[in-house]
Design brief:
It is a single chain. The protein is mainly beta. It is built from three helices and twelve strands, in the order αββαββββββαββββ. Helix content is 15%, strand content 38%. The strands form three sheets. It has a four-stranded antiparallel sheet. The radius of gyration is 19 Å and the shape is globular.
């Protein structure tokens, strides 16, 4: 009996068992032409694996604006921007959606073009570009004589923006939330993201487009 009470106490503490703490479901991308792409969710998965290569190519090559929807507590939530495309993906805990707004004409323009929404679709926070840390970007900033963060570059296409969000596994084997920042069109920096606070955290890696 004592063990049974202990088990019930442990279960009550688990977030997944808490009343109302349901997960985000059925996240999809769609465009103005009526194409709907159900996204595959997970670590190191291709989010477009739920559709054929032909469907993927048709969707990606379409000039139509892309939008996002998901289901939470049985209610469909839609993110659209009249002036630009949006891509989005759920957080590791499936309680938030991280949306990336594309282009200088979007509702959320670079460098503030990454927005975290709660599962119910309400605004949680807008991400802020941190001081950049990658060796390649620091060299490029010095070459361009920019500040750090190089906000002056955000006024031109590809100058400074959040480009992507995904899941990553850290050195301890824990799946974490990760964002990708682009500077001066080609230079990439990956950083850990705390979705609950909106804080851009540890430097993870660098790259070049």
């Amino acid at each position: 009996m004592k063990n049974a009470f202990l088990l019930l106490f442990i279960l009550a503490l688990l977030p997944s068992c808490a009343p109302g703490n349901k997960a985000i479901e059925k996240i999809t991308q769609f465009n103005d032409e009526g194409m709907v792409i159900p996204l595959k969710i997970g670590y190191r998965v291709n989010m477009f694996d739920n559709v054929s290569k032909q469907q993927y190519a048709a969707y990606i090559n379409s000039p139509s604006k892309q939008s996002v929807s998901w289901v939470y507590h049985g209610r469909k939530i839609i993110l659209q921007d009249q002036n630009s495309s949006i891509t989005a993906y759920p957080s590791v805990d499936l309680q938030y959606v991280i949306a990336i707004y594309k282009g200088l004409e979007s509702e959320n323009k670079p460098p503030c073009n990454a927005v975290i929404y709660k599962a119910d679709g309400t605004l949680h926070t807008v991400l802020k570009i941190p001081v950049l840390q990658s060796e390649n970007i620091l060299k490029r900033i010095s070459f361009n004589k920019d500040s750090n963060p190089p906000f002056e570059s955000s006024s031109f296409e590809g100058g400074l923006l959040f480009d992507n969000y995904d899941w990553w596994k850290n050195e301890q084997g824990i799946i974490i939330d990760r964002v990708r920042i682009i500077y001066d069109r080609d230079w990439i920096e990956w950083r850990q993201l705390n979705v609950k606070t909106g804080e851009i955290g540890a430097y993870i890696g660098q790259g070049k487009l």
